[in-house]
Amino acid sequence: MILYRISPLHPLAGYPGPLLWRITKFAPAWYGAKGKHHLQLKKLHERYGPIVRIGPNELSIVDKDMIPFILGNQGMPKGTLWEGRRILRSKNYNVNNSMVAVRDLDRHAQLRKPWNKAFGTGPLKDYEEMLTLRAGLLVDRLESHCKTDRDPFGRVDLAKWFSFFSFDFMGDIAFASDFSHLQDGDVHGFIKNMEDAHFLPTIVQHIPWAAKVTRATPFIGSKLQKFGGFALQQAKKRAEKKMLHKDLFYHLIQATDPDLAANPLPLIMANTILTIIAGSDTTASGLTSLFFFLLRNPECHKRLQHEIDEVARLDPSLSPDKLAQVPYLNAVVNETLRLHPPVASSVQRAPKIGSGGKMLGSMFLPEGTCVTLPPYVYHRDPRYFSPNPDTFWPERWLKNADESDEESVLERAAFIPFAAGPANCAGKPLAMMELRYVTALLLRNLDIAFDDGFDASSWEDTLTDRLVLCKGPLGVKFTKRALKL
Annotated binding site, which residues? Predict the structure, then answer.
């Protein structure tokens, strides 16, 4: 088998890649365990070029012209990675009813329609009310540190507080539950259990044949089982609750089939894991990265705060609709998502089973082969983002399309923080609304800086590539601002 995988007879023999990776997927699994898979892929592409063989039957492609053939309307279904990522056991989890895990394009299209409606203009207005209340509580709780501490500054781990906020907000919009993290902290370990559950799928996604064994093994799979049990519990509670407001699952049920309201548990259970992780962890990581970059670049921080103050003078409520039109705020959000995309590496597709293969432009991808498009690598490729592709520079997003600047490159087609095509992130409109509103509210109400002794130069080393890009602690100090209207 090893000789075949490295021989000229293998269908991927013509693509370069490190010898060990061509032989076995245990090599990328090792970097997955370390949480540095995204960094290693970047190194491999810098060494081997835009197409790299990263497994016996897998390629990593960084070429914007390939994106439509892989992720577009005529693209491919998800690859085997998703079998290894699954957290719940088969008896609790019908893959064919889960939008994030289903590997049939027609079935995915059926499942996706209700999600598109659930994040339409009308439902977003319902979520907006919950967002303003929960974000207001976040500001109040942070301001309380200034009022009670003898130190003139409030001092917190802002990453932790963003996790508290996003998890509580996820409870608001999906489960009609107040998890009360902003009031009590993670006393029940809900957030810790979720973060712990990321570890094993990060490894097993590279060797999906081992997934059933690892999930069933008590010691190895205990953290998955613990988080999976929590998710099932929330699904059952939500299915039994009478509706007090129109939340995410209300809109999903109405868009799928209103008759499901009599027995919504199967639909809720199939989408609970996706809702918890995508609805909390990704937003918390995005907000943490955004404030890290602002505090690391004081001139950007000052410019954005001034812009928010100008908006607040005309619209003291900082309505999300108005914030969506604020140029520099959107530039800062885009630049954050460029440098730290929520899913850093594991966007994988594969030819449909039974198809024989797929033409990617002039390139043929045989059936049984997977292809990965790593957003982290795309977003730092100098062909698509220059100058200084590894540098936080929001101004790159403010250039008009008709401006001629030979030294500056901004290739929006290569910007895929929410993936692309029909299987992109359904919750993108809500995520963008959260990022803008929470950022604006904190900048309007607080003056924030790195805490004394915080080592900003090494903070990015704490980031790990799990199911999402996970954050490290972000120590800050802050004071309450005197609002001038």
Answer: 425
